[in-house]
Design a protein that fits this description.
It holds the Pfam family Tektin. The chain has 488 residues and is mainly α. Among the domains are: 184 residues, Up-down Bundle (Substrate Binding Domain Of Dnak, Chain:A, Domain 2), CATH 1.20.1270; 128 residues. It is built from nine helices and no strands.
């Protein structure tokens, strides 16, 4: 039975006779229903019209021939037509005809009523079925929309949770990026300090310009700082790259979440629509438009892939942060230990130089004292030589005067022998004294040279001590601590 969008007809009635010419055309009647809004858009093409309308309209009020009313009566026995009787009345039918006609009308009316009752019952059942199917269909659609809303809310909560975790991870990784940048910038100071220490130590003089342990430790410190800078820069590049990956994953999550929110809003609005809602309209042919681009499996897989990508990026980011933290701790500890070793080497070297300086000062004081004593002794020798020379002059003068004795007076007496012995002894003594004087003068020259060497060495030691203690250690006192290197 056709009940939706088409005219309802009783299938058990007599076939419908063709309408007479007195009835209006179907197109004319359809035109009269153009402004009527039926229950379905497709029912606008044909109005609802029962068969009884056509059957009632098919009755012809004209009189039929008597032969049609009395089919068994021959034409010769038909009562002649009297145009008008004495009483002025027409007598065309008998009372039996009238009764039969009424009975036929009653029977037809009763049959039509029974048919109408059955039709009304069928229509009632059909309408109830239509309403029930409509309610069931609409309920199924509403339930499907509710399930869809629940699915969207679940994935929205998952996306929000993952997005919050990604934002926290991005903030933590950005903080690590800043710490790495600060740590990388802070290594420039120790690097310059180590270079300046090497340049300052190049200004040492003489024997102190030596490749000692301090210089070796400084070279090692420069190599360690350069290695730490390279590792920090490499880690910083990896952090920057990971930040870009995190940013892309976050953008995908935000875009997916925005789409989910829009879809949730639309589906919630559709879920709340009812037959009594105001914003409902006809959209003819909308059911034939398929604007979908996914199915539930691909829809859920798309969001799951975004979440999995974000989780993978967060895991890689957390691992990178842990590695960066370990690298910061390792480089800070390594640089600090090398800094301590260099300082220890400087302290040891400064102690050695100070001890050498103290010894030089002691030897210099002793040398100066010896020079003073030797100079005093030379003066004594010189005075002794002068005294001996006077004594020699006296003895030689005596001998010279005694050579002028006359004749036999030139006697080799004891006085002569003693004077000669005195002259010889004095001459030998003077020769010895002159040798001692030359030796003393030579020793004095050696002491003076030694003094000069000690004084020069003392200047060198003072210069080395000033470079190591004042310049180098003064610079290294401003070396950043471990907390500053770690970037806190």
């Amino acid at each position: 039975m056709e009940l939706y969008g088409y005219p309802l007809k009783a299938k058990f009635n007599q076939p419908r006779p063709p309408p007479p010419k007195v009835l209006p055309a179907t197109s004319t009647m359809t035109a009269s229903y153009k402004n009527h809004i039926p229950c379905h858009p497709e029912s606008l093409s044909m109005p609802w019209m029962p068969n009884s309308y056509y059957r009632a309209a098919a009755l012809n009020p004209t009189l039929s021939p008597l032969t049609e009313c009395f089919p068994g009566l021959p034409p010769t026995r038909i009562i002649p037509f009297i145009s008008e009787g004495p009483g002025g009345a027409f007598r065309r039918h008998t009372l039996d005809d009238w009764n039969r006609y009424n009975l036929a009308n009653y029977k037809e009316s009763e049959t039509a009523r029974h048919s109408a009752e059955r039709l009304r019952a069928d229509l009632t059942r059909a309408i109830q079925g239509v309403h029930q199917r409509a309610r069931s269909s609409q309920g199924e659609s509403t339930r499907s929309l509710g399930e869809r809303i629940n699915d969207i809310e679940y994935w929205k909560s998952e996306l929000c949770h993952e997005l919050d975790a990604m934002i926290r991870e991005n903030n933590s990784l950005a903080d690590m990026q800043k710490r790495l940048e600060r740590a990388l910038a802070d290594t420039e100071g120790p690097f310059q300090v180590a270079h300046k220490c090497l340049l300052n130590r190049e200004k040492r003089m003489g024997i102190d310009l030596v490749n000692d342990d301090v210089e070796k430790q400084l070279v090692t410190e420069i190599a360690i700082i350069r290695s730490c800078r390279e590792r920090l820069q490499k880690c910083l590049d990896m952090v920057n790259s990971q930040l870009m990956c995190n940013k892309e994953a976050r953008q995908e999550l935000e875009k997916d979440l925005a789409d989910k929110q829009m879809g949730h809003h639309i589906d919630s609005k559709c879920h709340q629509l009812k037959d009594t809602s105001r914003d409902i309209h006809f959209f003819k042919g909308v059911e034939r438009i398929d604007a979908t681009v996914s199915v539930p499996e691909t829809w859920a897989r798309f969001t799951d892939n975004n979440i999995f990508r974000s989780q993978s990026a967060r895991a890689a980011s957390a691992k990178l942060r842990a590695g960066s933290e370990s690298l910061l701790m390792g480089t800070a500890d390594e640089m600090w230990r090398q800094f301590s070793r260099v300082n220890d080497a400087f302290t040891s070297r400064i102690t050695e130089i100070a001890n050498a300086k103290s010894k030089i000062q002691t030897h210099l004081a002793k040398t100066r004292q010896e020079i003073f004593q030797l100079e005093t002794k030379i003066q004594v020798i010189q005075k002794t030589i002068k005294d001996k020379e006077v004594q020699l002059k006296v003895a030689q003068t005596r001998l010279d005067e005694r050579t002028r004795r006359p004749n036999v007076e030139l006697c080799r007496d004891a006085a002569q022998i003693r004077l000669v012995q005195e002259v010889n002894d004095t001459t030998e003594t003077l020769r010895n004294l002159h040798q001692c004087l030359r030796a003393s003068e030579d020793m004095l020259q050696m002491l003076v040279r030694s003094k000069g060497v000690l004084e020069q060495d003392l200047v060198v030691k003072n210069n080395s001590l000033f470079i190591d203690q004042e310049r180098c250690m003064g610079l290294r006192k401003s070396y950043p601590g471990t907390v500053r290197i770690l970037g806190y």
